[in-house]
Fold:
Amino acid sequence: MTPSTPGPGASVPVPAAAAGGPISHAIFRLARLHRMYAGQLLRRIGLHPGQELVMMHLWELGAQRQTDLVRLMDSDAATMTRTVQRLEQAGFVRRRPSPTDKRASLIEPTAASHALRREVEQSWSQLEDLVAAGLTAEERTAALETLERLEQNLVAASTEPANAEGEE
Amino acid sequence: MTPSTPGPGASVPVPAAAAGGPISHAIFRLARLHRMYAGQLLRRIGLHPGQELVMMHLWELGAQRQTDLVRLMDSDAATMTRTVQRLEQAGFVRRRPSPTDKRASLIEPTAASHALRREVEQSWSQLEDLVAAGLTAEERTAALETLERLEQNLVAASTEPANAEGEE
DNA sequence: CACAGTTACCTGCTCGAACAAGTAAATATC
DNA sequence: GATATTTACTTGTTCGAGCAGGTAACTGTG
Structure:
């Protein structure tokens, strides 16, 4: 029945497993599919998942220190190091020592990279159209609110728990 | 400001970045947080993300061939091989050659693993409470429907595109 | 100025995700 | 029954994610 693999860059098999909390699992499955699609779109333009976010920050804000990128994306410093290394090697960013801080290096997008920006934005746009296909403007807003509410629940849980050792 | 690392299993920094399509990015952020929490809960009980799904399938269905697990989780065969190897090494599963098919091996949960099941279920339950905190039953249902609708959009997109070779 | 403490970055490691390729066994076809 | 194809699984590789160090540079304090 399954038509088998149609070839690279076109197969996104249907999900299957379901267990755990319904919402948790729905998030899991949705995120999985979403990641798959994003990955496919990104690969076409020569980026790996995650790299496009770094680039977008750089294109929007200009040269940044790695630490800034880490903060902006709330990612891991070690991951950022290697991601930047690969972006550099791919010719999308350049590293320049910070004039004010010898520890830091400024990451800036190369001229060559700017051609990518449109493609990244198009990919994002495509993905958004896919995931929100058939939704009215109101439904999109509602969906967004739902997602953000769930997100806020998790954010809140990370700050509240307050098994915290005394701050103060 | 940031109280520094409170210790393992307690720090989930707030997200930050936002870009791309609003819904896409909301999914991305939500999934990220969700994954973080799931990872923390799982680590406490000695599992890595993904392993718990394998175990749940085994506990529910009994011994399965790797291929079955791959199909159930719609995951990669290579990933499954290594995941099972690690679960085996951790003593949670055992591998037995299939009596009927010399290529296949049956994966079955060990007796020792059953103690884990409660913990996995508790972790899932905890996570579900976290993510759906403060939602009424109706809101949970609505959220679930929203998530599933978005998921269905992606699933549909994977089957429709119909650059497909005829499925006849 | 010397010291401790912090910050910025890098490396090593484990593990999941995905793709490519390869082996062995089962099955289909001639 | 020999050959081709499919199936089950393994290994190799790249890359993101996260944790655990480790080094150099900055900063604050005495």
Summary: Residues 48-51, 75-76, 78-79, 82-83, 86, 101-104 of chain B lie near DNA strand C (CB under 10 Å from a C1'). Chain B touches chain A through 68 residues (CB under 8 Å).
